[in-house]
Design brief:
alpha/beta, L-arginine/glycine Amidinotransferase, Chain A, 5-stranded mixed beta sheet, 21 strands
Length: about 350
């Protein structure tokens, strides 16, 4: 599995349609999506999944008014339950250096072992593999399909993957693979993603209804360095969990035995809706070919976080995207996106620019 900062063929997104994810805010969410697409389409293709009942012309009008480059936007009519493409979308693998072929690691998706509507989302990876004419590898262990979401892992592209115990090893809450041990997960991650080393953090952040996804906590920004969220307020419920994660990283090593370089990333002030804490985090950024899109929250620390990420990504423009409305769905930019790596062989879709596709 390549690192996110490696060259992309495209970014996959699913156009929003599930009003229950953004109560009373769905119309506003369309314009946030349009801005995301506009920023991404300036440097790579955007491959957009739209639901069967969503009028394509309405989507394209929205993108046009946002001035997104239409020649870099491809629409695929593939039904989804929700829009969190990071978690149910295809996890791409490559072979060769430089990459000559792409394939898809097909994990099962069960809506974070929390929601009942997931069967459409679970079919997306196989459908995409068919459209791209690339191989799809069903990931199994101990004779059964393995459940794993893309937001639960982060890789450095040279042999190390990070995840959290809260997400994968909790024996009672949102259990993805009942009976799986740490050793079982390490076998699965190594065999399916091409990694040799697993770094285990402890917990995710408060308000995260995925129960501990790592992409709200800590992210690789190059093969040796991570940005790690830090909560300085000792009274905040994230303070202890993030401090413990730091202790673990300080004693952890990478695939080559070297220490991990840690850059601290602030946390925004707590945000809530109807009395429920929301998982606001600057770590939920997305790295595209030319820009890094960072969620912002009308918070004084927005500027601090953008400055830190500008320093660790000197070859890309770092751009803030207002994400308070997105956060009502319990996720932001990284949760919505899934990268397709660039390869010279199978897995690259050759199309007329701006074409549309219907999955049957």
């Amino acid at each position: 599995m390549p690192a996110e900062w490696e060259d992309h063929e495209a970014t996959w997104l699913a156009w929003p349609h599930n009003a229950s994810d953004w109560p009373g805010k769905l119309a506003a969410i369309y314009w946030v999506y349009a801005e995301i697409v506009r920023k991404l389409a300036a440097s790579e293709h955007v491959r957009l999944l739209i639901n069967s009942k969503t009028p394509e012309d309405r989507v394209r009008r929205c993108l046009s008014r946002a001035e997104a480059d239409p020649s870099h936007v491809e629409v695929f009519r593939i039904s989804t339950d929700r829009g969190w493409t990071r978690d149910f979308g295809p996890i791409f693998l490559t072979r060769g250096h430089p990459a000559s072929e792409t394939a898809i690691a097909k994990f099962q998706f069960t809506a974070w072992a929390r929601y009942p509507d997931w069967k459409k989302d679970n079919c997306v990876s196989v459908t995409v593999a068919s459209l791209l004419a690339c191989r799809s590898f069903p990931i199994t262990h101990k004779g059964r399909a393995v459940v794993l979401e893309g937001g639960s892992i982060d890789v450095n592209g040279v042999g190390t993957v990070m995840t959290t115990e809260e997400c994968l090893l909790d024996p009672a809450v949102q259990v993805r693979n009942p009976g799986f041990s740490r050793a079982d997960y390490e076998i699965v991650l190594k065999e399916s993603l091409g990694v040799t080393h697993v770094v285990w953090l402890k917990r995710g952040i408060a308000g995260d209804d995925t129960h501990g996804h790592v992409d709200d906590v800590c992210r690789f920004v190059n093969p040796q360095t991570v940005v790690l969220c830090q909560e300085r307020n000792p009274r905040d419920e994230n303070h202890e969990a993030l401090a413990e994660n730091r202790e673990r990283l300080e004693s952890a090593v990478l695939e080559n035995g070297s220490k991990i370089e840690i850059v601290s990333l602030p946390m925004p002030a707590p945000l809530s809706f109807d009395g429920q804490r929301l998982p606001a985090s600057y770590a939920n950024f997305y790295i595209s070919n030319a820009v890094v899109l960072v969620p912002t929250f009308n918070d004084p620390k927005d500027r601090v976080a953008l400055g830190i990420l500008s320093e660790v990504f000197p070859d890309r423009s770092v751009i803030g995207i207002h994400a308070v409305d997105l956060l009502l769905g319990f996720g932001t930019l990284h949760c919505l996106t899934q990268q397709q790596p660039l390869a010279k062989g199978d897995g690259t879709l050759t199309t007329d620019q701006g074409c549309s596709y219907v999955a049957r």
